[in-house]
Amino acid sequence: VLAVRIDIAKTLMDALDIIQGLYPAVKVNEGYRSFEYQSELYARYINSGKDPQFIAAPPATGNHRKGEAVDLDEMHTAAVRAYTVPIMLATGKLKAYGPDDPPHFSLTGG
Question: Which of 59, 82, 104, 110 is most buried, taking the most CB atoms under 10 A from its CB?
Answer without folding.
Answer: 104
